[in-house]
Amino acid sequence: MTTFQPAEVPGQAPPPDSVSPRDSRADAPTSIGRLNQTIKGFIERWGSVWVEGEITSWNVRAGAVYARLKDLQGDAQISIRIWSSARGRIPADLKVGDHVVACVKADYYVRGGDFSFQVSAMKHVGLGEQLERLERLRAQLRAEGLFDAARKRPLPFLPHCIGLITGERSDAEKDVHRNAELRWPQVRFRTVHAAVQGDRCVPETLAALQRLDADPEVDVIVIARGGGDPQTLLGFSDERLLRAVAAAQTPVVSAIGHENDHPLLDDVADLRASTPTDAAKRVVPDVGEQRAIVAQLRSRLTTRLTQRISHDIAQLEQLRSRPVLRSPEHMVRSRTQDVWQLVSRGRDLVERRIDQGRLRAAELRASLRALSPAATLARGYAIAHADGGVILRDAAQAPEGTRLVVTLDRGSIGATSTGELAEAGGHPAGASETSEPGK
């Protein structure tokens, strides 16, 4: 806000009825009226100045508007009056929270000793700059991914408890409660009131968001406010609030203003509702619609089950009507003769194979006997084995003193060789034999 000091206007003398400190004594005090007149005279010499500030109160009365302007960077405030003669020169949509510049002139009310400023002109200011800042912030947040659909959390189908941030006794609060309860009568709310415009909007909304986000019972948070011009909705485009909503663990629904209002909170929130009423409809399912859906699903399920059972019954009857299932013993009887014939053929085949095997075994036994040395031994011959089981075929293989084993037709005997015999001698002279029972 622009500040100014009283200044002497060149060529303009003090009011003739003014009083100065040197003219006032305890034994000769001045009157309050004269003092106020003196103050009024000095104030009127200041002239008009343009100041910038925010409207913090706006009371329309008969014949005038009584309001207050607050400095944008501090706590200083002034009282202003807008007479009906100046109402036509100011915008009709001015209200609390607007950022304005005004042409004011100091005024001192002599009778009441009240100091205020009369407004001769007033207009909105800074809207273009604010919109430019918002666009820069929008581009920054979009580049950081805060608008991406992938990061937005889905809302629960049926929230057990809804957190609501809105103005106290506001129409938005009533709309959300009324429409949500009409759709689902058992819905529960946890409401935290906060200023929805002005300096307290952002800090109070941040505190409410932090409180509800930390509550484990709250399944979704709705930030709701009625419509307004861009000036009054600036708090819902504040970067601090936007980043807090993006960092919240609980899904957040933005229900700010009307359909045409579009603060940055709409882009960052997990769901944007066009109005508080729309937020209630988007967050809470309609019990009537859900009952209709359940009834429809039950009907479809009954129809499908009936069709499936009927189809299975028809298939079962078709299977049961087949001859093989209608009279299963017929298949056994028709195959009895075949089984008897196969068994008979198998028995004959097995007997023939056994007889053939018996004959073949006899033939092999006879051939084995013909080739076996046992037949030769039965005719009186013997087989002589030297040490190590070597069969002797030459007398020279058993010199004198060699231990022999002689195998006969029945059993074996041990003997000792006396050397090679002379062919003319017939029997060996001096031959020694030792008879041992054989195996």
Describe the structure.
This protein has 439 residues and is an alpha/beta fold. It folds into four domains: 21-125, OB fold (Dihydrolipoamide Acetyltransferase, E2P) (Beta Barrel); 129-285, Rossmann fold, CATH 3.40.50; 287-328; 373-439, no CATH class. The protein is 38% helix and 20% strand. The protein has helices at residues 32-44, 84-87, 127-143, 171-183, 201-213, 239-247, 265-268, 276-283, 287-320, 323-326, 328-371, 373-378; strands spanning 48-61, 64-70, 77-83, 99-109, 114-124, 162-166, 189-193, 220-225, 252-256, 271-272, 383-385, 403-407, 412-416. α4 (171-183) links the parallel β6 (162-166) and β7 (189-193). The radius of gyration is 62 Å and the shape is elongated. It starts with 31 loop residues before the first helix and ends in a 23-residue tail after the last strand. It catalyses: Exonucleolytic cleavage in either 5'- to 3'- or 3'- to 5'-direction to yield nucleoside 5'-phosphates. Belongs to the XseA family.
Short description:
With 439 residues, the protein is of the alpha/beta class.
